[in-house]
Amino acid sequence: MQDASAETERGAARPRAAAGGPPPGGGAGFGPVPPLPEPASPALARLGARAAAAAFYLPPLFMALFFLVPSLMTVVWSFWERTMFWMEPAFTLFSYENFFLSARFGNFLSSIGHSSIAVVICFVIGFPIAVFVRRRIPEVAQHRVMLLFILPFMVSEIVRTFMLRPVLGRNGLVNETLLGLGVISEPITSILFTPTGVVIGEVLSFLPFMVFCGFLAMEAAPKHVFEVCADIGAPRWRVFKDVILPLAAPGVFAGAVFILVNGLGVALIPNTLGGPGAVNAGLIATQAIIALDFPLAMAVSAIMTLTLIGLLAIGHRLFDLASILEPFK
Amino acid sequence: MTARLTRRGLMQSAAALAAASALPGAARAQSGPLSIWTIGVAKVGAAPGTGGKDWSDMAAEAGIEIAYNAKSGSADQAIQKMIVGDGDRLYDALTDNGGGMEDALASQGAIVPIDTSRIENWSRLLPLYDEGATAYDTIRHEGDVVAVPYLSNADSLAFNHSVIGEELTSWEALFDEQFRGRAAMQNDFGPTLTNTAIYLKQSGRQDIENPSDMTPEEVKGVAEFLIELKKKGHFRTFWDGFQNGVDLLASEEVLVSSCWEPVQIVAMNKAEKDIRYGTMQEGHQTWNNIWMLTKGGVARGQEDAFYKLMNLYLSPWFGARTLLTFGFGPQMIGIEDEIADNPDFTPEQKATITNRIERKRERYAVEGNSWQNVFPTHLRAYQDWWARVQGA
Questions:
Q1: Which whole-number Å values give the CA distances from B338 to A265, B319, B386, in the listed order?
Q2: Chain B residues touching residue A284 (CB < 8 angstroms)
Q3: Total beta-carbon pairs less than 8 A apart between chain A and chain B
Q4: Structure ipTM over 0.95, yes or no
Q5: Which one, A44, A130, B239, B382, has the greatest CB density within 10 A?
Q6: What is the spatial distance between Cα B187 and Cα A166, in angstroms, rounded to a whole number?
């Protein structure tokens, strides 16, 4: 309110010449009021209304064109027959057999396991940050603070991932420091080129997903709920477990899905930080493409897409994911 | 070889003079920049030991204009672009692996036969490509020359001599338990399974007919050998990507690694350690990279420019520079003559080139070498067993 009145004063103090002459309607010094537009003709009004209605169909059209159609084509192609250089129409389950009945399925499950651990760690680190920003930072500064978490995304993912090598490696910063302090006598080699390295890489790359989604979900939590909790002297742990977490569950779930799907799909992290042969679904598909086994690559992509849709369906059933957009309604 | 070179050089110079005076087409203006689709290391700079900041040095030396388009080294990209996609419309010439890609693209009509008479330096081509020699098929399709080789190598083992303190001459070292947890191989079933197969065959540990084209049973045996080692924690990692390979060696994360020679050279320079590239007594996977002329390139009248560029690629000018900068094997004879009295090269650079040529000759002379096969007959067995190695 103070801001508004200050603005009014500043507006009133503006020189008339700069404001473009006296206000025609005897306004309070805000400058000239533009004339109202002429009423549109009924035909134009109808056209405008139709255009506005049509605009609502653009997002679904966009999704259909760039998500649904490619996804369906991926599924269809996954049943085709491999040829020497491409594939030909057929209906065969060979690519799926080739995925589920080979070592690839085991590799896929392992990468789900590693990504799940990354999700848990991201939750443990990222969600408290979201809660803290939402509850302790002044409202006007909250979004600015959240912007800080975008900064890591401004650095290339390759650079972000690769720079962990001189930190976590045999002769890296961590080992050199611990050796220098006398904490260890031999370099620790179980950090890099192991599943631990992959999990660390995923946490550092995908943590902002949990922070953003958690923050968004916390915006749906009314402030008076916390005031009531404080009034009745509820312990912090009970507030977190019984109030914050249930309210933020849709956001936390959305963040978890983002992290899991990226962990399964981004080939760079297991490639750079994983041990011998560390793979995820993204790498399995990439290697299939390199070997010109396009139906197998399509099958892996289809399995990934179905996994994502399945997770979202479960999440929606459990947590009503639409509620994450509640503050914007 | 030097005497032969001199004779060839004289004959070639005479032929070049005759061709230049007899062919008015040679002076014909280029219809537009030659659109090439290739890898970054296909170029060198005019200053010896440099990669060139762009393609201007190569264009100036060839006397043409070049429009460069970046390409990865994986086979799928060229197949998709040239056979299924719009590569023919976009590119006049492209590079890829010999020993498979030339057959794939020629059989689909994406590339055209090469008129070797239009490449003056063709007479300098290594005897490796003569009829009956090991690399004969890698540039031909159904008997026709469809590609021009521009670099090759015999991939080997890089090792940290500063730490190990001895010369390694057998793949045995890569699999030896003294390097448990300090060994790496490439995350690519082609070179990794082939080099392992060469070792297993030549050491008598497994019966393998052709390490470059194994049967499913043979692939299984090779993969199981790697799986057993992997379960013991022998490999630190399987590297993927040039910088990744360099970093592993330079940081001493691994002491032995099967890798490309440029990886060893950059790691050695970066770490300033004595990281060497050995000659393995069992043999090596040998390979080449080739230039091909597209059907679209011919339709757009780019043949003259293409042949001028190919002439440069088969000249000692290029050979000496790619050998010095990247360690890639030149495809022509006459390097020693090129550098002998050439003031552009320092004495150290000349010594490096001479040393590398000698070591390459040693590696190429090993009997157990096996030429790269981009599309082995049982490709699916390679894929499936590699997935098991990864998952073990």
A1: 50, 9, 44
A2: 387
A3: 95
A4: no
A5: B239
A6: 21
